[in-house]
Amino acid sequence: MKLVYADEKGQVFDSEKWIGLGRSGDMIVELLEDELIPLPEGATLVGLPHTRPIGLNVRTGQMEKLPENMQAVGALLPQGYTRLAIPGYVKTDKTQKLPLFGYTAVVWKDGEFYVAASKSDDPQRWNPLNCDRRELRVQVDRLLAKYPDNRLYRHLSNCALGYECLTAANTFLQRWEGAVPVSYSCNAGCFGCISEQPDDSGFPAPQTRMNFRPTVDEVEQIMLEHLQTPDAIISFGQGCEGEPSTQAAIIVEAMRRVRSKTSNGYININTNAGLTDHIRAIVDAGLDLMRVSTISAMDDHYNAYYKPRGYSLANVERSLRYAADKGVYTSINYLVFPGVTDREEEMEAMIGFARRTGLRLIQMRNLNIDPESYLELIPPPQGEVYGMKQMLDIFREELPDVVIGSYTRVPPVAGKV
User: Fold this and answer.
1) Which residues are CB-contacts of 386 (< 8 A; sequence separation ≥ 6)?
2) CA 329/CA 280 separation, integer angstroms
3) What angle do CA 408, 411, 415 make, to 5 degrees?
4) What angle do CA 217, 220, 222 make, to 5 degrees?
5) Global pTM?
6) Can you tell me the distance from the alpha carbon of 322 to that of 397, in angstroms, rounded to the nearest whole number?
């Protein structure tokens, strides 16, 4: 397993002198053969600025930092893959923060790149190569012409064409899971928010948040256009917006209008579920699917990352339990990080949370964050760190009725929820 590094020009090389290593939390770890898979289609190799790789010297068997002109390299995985280790590196300038991406350990082995990852779902639908850019442009122009006054379609056109957001692209291609953002405000101040960061955060937000409140008519038009097939999903709560349930009145009225005209497809909300009364109203209006974003089932960890305003993790749990009791297919968008999510206390808390709330699906999502900043933010470990691969095995054993995956999906039964 040869170490992979980049030079000052960004060119990527492998080295015969060092074995590639990974990191779990702040610990440098050796990568095991059963933790490695070939670099998936759609993955990207990136240099980690202001870092030096750490490798295992083949001759001495000692871990050591590589020369200063070498930069650590990580892989950015496509959706559907759970990373098992981050790259092995140290920072050359601790004041510099890495951009908000999910960096995965990568090595050179048997003539190709390998990454420390596990396939958690079928990535086919979310492979960027399955989005024909020419067809997307045609469909964007068609729907913008059909609804010239709909600001949401204009907003989503930039998400689809500019940011290459696949959920936004689906809205125009009228397939699979499509997006309908509704909120410019949020009741949380997530440390790693991808659409809004304080000016002094040091993290440039990779996306721009929507800056207007849509009308019910605008939302209804997008929903009706997308929900034309029985398996279509239309989703509130996107990376380009705040918390959708803050606009519950718009969502509820749009849902009622849509469901009076069609029973096709599924209505989903991606939410932090902190506003329990708002979530109840949305559920009662006919919600089919709900995915709740979380990073932990432990209060101190959750609060440190989400910085909730006017709600607590207890509210999140009540929202999930209410939705499950009403027949909504519930899941969590679980932001995972090697060396943290696989801590003994984190696993115990999440298994209990899943059982109490009646979860049906855990979507494993790699946390996009600067590792050092995140580890400084959260509580230190209290018990054993098991490793991500063993964590996945434990979840499958302890939660046999819960699907471990990566994507929002329709219930695995015929008909509606």
Assistant:
1) 342, 343, 344, 347, 394
2) 14
3) 135
4) 115
5) 0.91
6) 26
Residues 6+ apart with CB under 8 A from 56: 3, 18, 19, 20, 21, 30, 62, 63
Give the helix/strand (H/E) hosting 318: helix 313-325
- The H-assigned helical ranges of 114-185 are 133-146, 151-161, 166-173
CB 289 within 8 A of CB 267: yes
Read off the pLDDT of residues 233-291 as tens digits, 9 standing for 90 and up. Answer: 999 998 788 899 999 999 999 999 999 999 999 999 999 999 999 999 999 999 999 99
Copy the structure tokens of residue 8: 């000052």
| CA end-to-end distance (rounded Å), the chain | 47
User: Is residue 194 over pLDDT 80?
Assistant: no
Token pair of 246 as six digits:
């803050």
H helix count then E strand count, the chain: 11, 21
Q: How confident is the model at residue 42 (pLDDT cuts 50, 70, 90)?
A: confident
- Do 269 and 312 touch, CB atoms closer than 8 A? no
Give how far Cα 316 sits from Cα of 117, 234, 277, 312, Å: 29, 22, 11, 7
Those residues whose C-beta lies under 8 Å from the C-beta of residue 359, and which sit 6 or more positions away, are: 320, 324, 330, 331, 332, 353, 399, 402
Per this entry, what is the length of the chain? 417
Query: Rounded to an integer, what distance in angstroms lies between the CA atom of residue 278 and that of residue 284?
Result: 10
Q: Provide φ and ψ at 4, rounded to 5°.
A: -110, 135
3-state helix, strand, coil in the chain (%, to 5): 30, 25, 45
* Interacting residues of 14 by C-beta distance below 8 A, sequence separation 6+: 2, 3, 4, 5, 107, 108
Q: Which residues of 278-293 are buried (b: 16+ CB within 10 A; e: fewer)?
A: bbbbbbebbbbbbbbb
- Indicate if the pLDDT at residue 8 is higher than 60: yes
Q: How confident is the model at residue 173 (pLDDT cuts 50, 70, 90)?
A: very high
Pairing of strands 86-87, 89-91: unpaired
* Pairing outcome for strands 44-47 and 12-24: unpaired
**DSSP summary character for residue 40:** P
Q: What is the DSSP letter of 308?
A: B
> What single string gives the DSSP state of each residue in 367-389?
--S-HHHHHHHSPPP-S-B--HH
Q: Higher pLDDT residue, 306 or 190?
A: 306
Is residue 319 within 8 A of residue 274, CB to CB? The reply is yes
Extract the tokens encoding 119: 């396939």
